[in-house]
Design goal:
Elements lengths: L2 E3 L4 H17 L1 H4 L11 H4 L2 H7 L4 H9 L15 H12 L8 H6 L1 H8 L19 H21 L3 E5 L5 H9 L3 E6 L2 H24 L21 E5 L7 H10 L9 H13 L2 E3 L4 E4 L3 H5 L3 H8 L9 E9 L2 H11 L3 E9 L23 H4 L27 H4 L8 H6 L4 H10 L6 H15 L7 H11 L10 H12 L6 H11 L2 H12 L2 H18 L4 E5 L10 E6 L12
Parallel strand pairs: 2-3, 2-7, 3-4, 7-8
Antiparallel strand pairs: 1-9, 4-6, 5-6, 8-10, 9-10
Length: 590
């Protein structure tokens, strides 16, 4: 089901954003509570007593039902009468987020394939031709198959064959779009190693196509070939460049121009000559941010200043226009793409799937408080939880020379208390549907969350600096990856290995007995985590709707579509915007 932001729905979208913010602020004491600090800060005690009475008796299937909103498999019901405040919280958590479920047509199309992948009954996504599955994990195979189809539809509707894939990585999506759909694709990727790898994979696929074309063309399923046997398929062009949040649209166009202007060239033979030389050349660093292919072809194939000026003055779908795309663009990259899209007149459409919201830079954010300031509504107040009293105001806006990832829209920026700290943004990236399935399946490794929370109590006593600051936390997580994590590993063994790797003192026998008592509270920890996870889709919806409002404020309609099965790909929303008419023809049925 698609959510559109157009003149008819704009005011509804604005009100939705206000309701989302009301919920986020009401339950900030939950979303800003790290589960790893469950025992350190006694998060269970922060829950109202009436909530504790209900949640403490939950088994894992009841927790899964609460999190997913689906009935329990065994047909049982919750035994206790819930307080109105908890019922209100659950109702709002279910009602406010964007619908994450695919439309029925999409859900049934590859239902068996997806279920087999989820059960690990097969190791590849069969609908994707085997040429594009090499060196690609099943999850990524599924994602590029689904998104490539959508991107091709957008390009077709926009009458544009040129595409710029930002944050392309090893170019798995790009190859499908180039070789499979015949689009003229240029990637922009910050990591030179990824670009080198992408060019090698492009070359291998090109060689395979050339051989199979002669020996057995029937083996080239999913490859778009020209009528002339002498023509090579479209080969992607690659640019190494770190896109700064401050980049201007003209600078981005110049970047494409300086790197042969691959997407801006109208002559196919001329472009193919460039790509052939790119594959035969080598990547060399031009400066700290940008690299080009060796050779002196830039001057020969660069777009003239006159043509560039003409391209910037038109929005028509000619040979100089292109479509923006990005699959799971991290942190500030997705908002940056949106800004460039709105300011670049030759960008005709946008297809964006964001991720890693915690890595965005945000305005007015203060460090999370060490103690939760919870404000739980009383039962008499609970029925009005969805009412917002936030007036639209222009007060409290800070000027900043650095563009922010959130909020992007003026509307959200004008709402008081719109800030999102690191913890809620990190929570918005959790795989809620996957976790609910783990609970439903009775995954025994769930208890390891309790192990980690117990370890945190020791860290806070001996060396609290290890958990202070995001840099230290990342370092701690890196060390913990080397600790054996299985449910059949006794707590004492887990703690001994972890403390040894962290360089901390081992616990005494008496301390060990006290820690075992904490382990007995593992169901409380999981129940609190489930309550916290219920806020995650609300936070993600707020971030995505803020982006829709930003696009509308810039004069462009947009829509959000759940394009992936959320159990396969948790960040499953694609944001689409087009500058050409007609808008969004049948895209929700792809």
């Amino acid at each position: 089901m698609a959510l559109r932001c157009d003149p008819d729905s704009y005011q509804l979208i604005q009100n939705h954003a206000k309701n989302l913010l009301c919920f986020v602020n009401q339950y900030k004491w939950i979303s800003e509570a790290y589960i790893v600090e469950f025992f350190v800060k006694d998060h269970w005690a922060n829950l109202p007593g009436s909530w504790q009475d209900v949640l403490q008796d939950f088994d894992t299937e009841q927790m899964a039902s609460l999190l997913s909103g689906q009935p329990m498999n065994n047909g049982t019901i919750f035994q206790r009468v819930w307080p109105l405040s908890l019922l209100s919280f659950r109702a709002a958590a279910y009602a406010l987020p964007l619908p994450r479920i695919l439309c029925e047509k999409d859900e049934t199309f590859d239902h068996v394939e997806v279920q087999n992948l989820l059960r690990k009954a097969q190791t590849s996504y069969e609908p994707l031709p085997h040429h594009y599955r090499r060196h690609v994990k099943p999850k990524k195979q599924y994602e590029i198959f689904r998104l490539a189809k959508l991107i091709n539809e957008v390009c077709t509707d926009s009458r544009c064959l040129n595409l710029v894939d930002v944050g392309a990585g090893l170019g798995h999506l790009t190859r499908l779009l180039s070789f499979g759909y015949g689009l003229h694709v240029t990637t922009v990727e910050a990591d030179g190693c990824n670009v080198t790898g992408a060019i090698k994979l492009d070359s291998k696929l090109t060689e395979t196509i050339q051989v199979k074309r002669v020996e057995n063309p029937s083996k080239l399923k999913g490859v778009k070939l020209s009528e002339s046997a002498s023509d090579d398929p479209n080969i992607p062009s690659h640019v190494i460049f770190h896109i700064n949040a401050n980049i201007a649209a003209d600078d981005f166009l110049n970047l494409l121009q300086e790197n042969h202007g691959a997407v801006l060239l109208s002559d196919r033979e001329e472009r193919q000559t460039i790509v052939d030389k790119r594959l035969n050349g080598s990547i060399t660093s031009a400066d700290n941010n940008k690299s080009t292919v060796s050779g002196n072809e830039n001057a020969k194939y660069a777009m003239s200043e006159q043509n560039l000026a003409h391209a910037q003055q038109t929005v028509s779908c000619d040979d100089k226009s292109f479509v923006f795309a990005g699959l799971h663009t991290c942190g500030d990259l997705a908002p940056t793409i949106l800004r460039v899209f709105t300011r670049c007149k030759t960008a005709t459409a946008l297809v964006s799937v964001g991720c890693c919201y915690q890595r965005m830079t945000c305005r007015n954010v203060t460090p999370a408080k060490t103690q939760c300031n919870r404000t739980v509504p009383t039962d008499s107040q609970a029925a009005a939880i969805l009412d917002t009293g936030n007036p639209r105001t222009t007060a409290g806006i800070q000027n900043s020379s650095q563009p922010q990832g959130y909020p992007m829209s003026t509307w959200v920026n004008h709402i008081p208390n719109h800030e999102l700290n690191y913890e809620p943004r990190e929570l918005a990236c959790h795989a809620v549907d996957t976790y609910a399935q783990r609970l439903r399946d009775g995954d025994p490794n769930i208890i390891l969350q309790c192990y980690r929370a117990i370890l945190e109590t020791i860290i806070q006593k001996q060396h609290p600096e290890l958990s202070t600051g995001h840099a230290s936390i990342r370092k701690l997580k890196k060390i913990m990856r080397n600790v054996k994590k299985q449910h059949d590993v006794p707590l004492n063994q887990y703690l001994s290995e972890a403390l040894s790797k962290l360089g901390l003192e081992q616990v005494s026998i008496d301390e060990s007995k006290e820690l075992e008592k904490l382990l007995a509270r593992w169901k409380q920890l999981i129940a609190f985590h489930v309550v916290r996870l219920l806020t995650a889709p609300v936070i993600e919806s707020l971030i995505l709707i803020d982006r829709m409002l930003y696009l509308y404020e810039q004069g462009f309609e947009s829509q959000l579509i759940p394009v992936f099965n959320p159990k396969m790909s948790p960040r499953n929303f694609v944001l689409i915007s087009k500058k050409t008419s007609p808008q969004f023809q049948d895209l929700e049925t792809l």
